[in-house]
Design a protein that fits this description.
Elements (H helix, E strand, L loop, with lengths): L5 E4 L5 H12 L3 E6 L3 H11 L2 E5 L5 H14 L5 E4 L14 H29 L2 E6 L3 H4 L5 H20 L5 E8 L5 H4 L3 H8 L10 H13 L7 E5 L7
Parallel strand pairs: 1-2, 1-4, 2-3, 4-5, 5-6, 6-7
Helix pairs in contact: 1-2, 1-9, 3-4, 4-6
């Protein structure tokens, strides 16, 4: 078993996930960088942090998730922190969205649930310690037109956090959510300028957040925050108060 603590970041190749990988590496973790398609970006993050490993998997595919957990068992033998960051946004208004699109959005949440279940059973419960950090979103609390399935799933992650924290009472495993606001990533880069201006008008700090500012909170919850569980921590520059 590896001596250093191990942190797994799903969707770790880009955006907030990549920032989390860098921050957790800085805190002394051996970091597992999960990706689905972004192999080149994942390799760049691994090169930058030096102490880590790559894992490719489609979280929608349960067989991929099983193989992923077995690789952790064989290669590192422990998982101390799981950051459920992987996400996707399938956008359309309710009248235009097809049932297949809705199901595709929902399937990722199922994969997150299953990965967490397997990490708990295989590692954290046996270690009698662990931290689970779910990356949700401000829109899970405020709603957002044209993103109903996405906002539903992000709200579900926060409900998952609160319920799982209660289920794990007395097990020394902390479960929290970090809910970013309007963060400068590939997902927000291509938004129309009028939409950006409308969102910016509601942000107290009058700017977009940086992925590193979300990662700072994730690193805190992974390393410290020993009396925080079942909580949703908002990182949104004053866009929403919680």
């Amino acid at each position: 078993m590896m001596e250093k603590p191990v942190a797994i970041v799903t969707g770790g190749a880009t955006g907030i996930g990549a920032a989390c990988c860098r921050a957790l590496s800085h805190e002394g973790f051996h970091v597992g960088i999960h990706y689905r398609k972004s192999a080149e970006q994942a390799q760049k993050i691994l090169t930058a942090i030096k102490d880590g490993f790559l894992i490719k998997a489609d979280l929608v595919n349960i067989e991929d998730v099983e193989a992923m957990v077995m690789k952790f068992k064989e290669d590192v033998g422990r998982v101390d922190v799981l950051v459920n960051n992987a996400g996707q946004s399938i956008n359309a208004d309710i009248l235009s969205m097809k049932i297949e699109q809705f199901d595709e959005q929902r399937a990722l949440t199922r994969g997150i649930w299953y990965l967490t279940k397997r990490i708990l059973r295989q590692f954290m419960l046996r270690q009698a310690a662990g931290r689970i950090i779910n990356i949700s979103s401000v829109v899970g609390h405020t709603g957002n037109a044209g993103q109903i399935p996405y906002t539903m799933e992000k709200a579900a992650l926060d409900a998952f956090t609160k319920s799982l924290a209660r289920e794990l009472r007395g097990r020394n495993i902390l479960v929290n959510s970090v809910a970013p606001g309007f963060i400068a990533t590939e997902m927000t880069r291509d938004l129309p300028e009028d939409v950006k201006s409308q969102i910016m008008a509601g942000i107290t700090l009058n700017r977009m957040g940086l992925p590193e500012e979300v990662a700072e909170v994730v690193a805190f919850l992974a390393k410290k925050g020993s009396y925080i569980t079942g909580s949703v921590i908002h990182v949104n520059g004053g866009l929403y108060g919680g």
